[in-house]
Amino acid sequence: MVKKLDEKSDLPLLIDHIGWRLTRLGRQWKAEFDAALVARGHEWMTQAQGGVVGHLRNAGVPQSELAALLDVSKQAVQQHVDALVAIGVVERVPDPSDARARIVRLTGKGTAALVDSNAIKLAIEARYRAVLGSDGFAALERALDQLFDAGPDAA
After folding, report:
1. CA dist 129 to 28, 125, 132, Å?
2. pTM score
3. DSSP string for residues in 38-64
């Protein structure tokens, strides 16, 4: 025997809200970005260690600084960098200002992946711009920046 569930509930209704819209779009953007990275042969970039690449600049970054930049433990950074070194995406070189420290920098393979990821990001933005129009896209960028800059304590 199947008991009919009472449609009334004491639980509050879920509301539609901006957080849900931002989350949905963020997930959609990430899925599109990751799929394009995989299609270009950069599956490693869709994993946790891929986050390291976004923090490396022309001269590289001291490995000791990556933990704070990524908001992870030094051990996690060590594992991520080890994995990236193993596949030839980054290399560790001596830090000229500290003989004990190492700079993590992109190799040619890492630079090529970064170039591809930038092209993918621009393609996604171009699609958004086509949907919203140039003015609408610029307004969206301004609104997102304004909300972020205002922070959680804004009135």
Report:
1. 16, 6, 5
2. 0.82
3. HHTT-GGGGSTTHHHHTT--TT-EEHH
What ranges in 7-107 are assigned the alpha helix state H?
18-39, 50-53, 63-70, 74-86
17: DSSP letter: -
**Angle subtended at Cα 13 by Cα 10 and Cα 15, rounded to the nearest 5 degrees:** 160
First vs last C-alpha separation in the chain:
54
Place of tokens 């290399």: 91
SS3 label, residue 104? strand
Cα 45 from Cα 117, distance rounded (Å): 9
Tens digit of each residue's pLDDT (9 = 90 or more) over 112-123: 999 999 999 999
Report the distance separating Cα 114 and Cα 133, nearest Å: 27
31 pLDDT above the threshold of 80: yes
Cβ-Cβ contacts under 8 Å for 53 (sequence gap 6 or more) = 45, 84, 89, 90, 106, 110, 113, 114, 117
Q: How far apart are CA 113 and CA 106, in angstroms?
A: 10
3-state secondary structure (DSSP) of residue 72: coil
Residue 92 bridge partners (DSSP): 104
Q: What is the mean pLDDT of the chain?
A: 92
